[in-house]
Amino acid sequence: MGLDANSNAGTIGAINQKISETVPNLTGKVHLLPCCIKYDGPSAVSHYFKPKPTGVEMEGMKVEEACFRGRKLQGASLPIPNGYSGFVIRKQSPGKRKASDMSEDNTWEIAAKFENITYWNHDSLPSKDDAFVRSLHLLSVAEAVSFLPMPFIM
To answer: Which residues form the signal peptide (predicted)?
Structure first.
């Protein structure tokens, strides 16, 4: 079974990890919506999507409310776990690449950074049982497990 020329399987790329002081900080503006948006271009999102605090706290999370395309969303903002960073990356333009990197089509650069992310549910309040919350918790568990001492066996 051959790979399609447009397939990303086995693709290798590089991320330029230099963070300039001019990189925008999107903390408080990064959202994970429970839907697929089939559009890739500019949009006046902040004009239409206006989350508001509800004053409700569930399991230590402050609940926010918003509407998207007429549907009510309820969400909560969570910090990126300690030891991790949140970045928005974009494909690096050919003019910014070094001559040695010109053959690589998959070179990425940091476009923005963020320290928290707000995730949204359609039909339920945010909960520590939500898959997204558990996935962030898994990062902490994985790090703790990786530092457990291995028993010495003879």
So the answer is: none
For residue 59, what is the domain's CATH number?
2.40.128.680
pLDDT of residue 143 exceeding 90 = no
Is residue 50 situated within a structural domain?
Answer: yes
Which SS3 state, helix, strand or coil, does residue 109 take? Answer: strand
For residue 9, tell me if it sits in a domain.
no
Is position 151 within any domain? no
Q: Could you tell me how far CA 51 lies from the centroid of its own chain? A: 18
Joined together, the tokens standing for residue 48 give: 């239409």
* Residue 89 CB-density burial (10 A; 0-12 exposed, 13-18 middle, 19+ buried): middle
For 143, what's the count of Cα atoms within 13 Å in the CB-facing half-sphere?
A: 9
> What domain count does the chain have?
1
* Confidence band for 2, pLDDT divided at 50, 70 and 90: very low
Task: Tell me the whole-structure pTM to 2 decimals.
Answer: 0.77
> HEC profile for 2-69?
CCCCCCCCCCCCEEECCCCCCCCECCCCCEECCCCCCCCCCCCHHHHCCCEEEEEEECCEEEEEEEEC
The domain in which residue 32 lies consists of 24-36+45-92+113-127+138-144
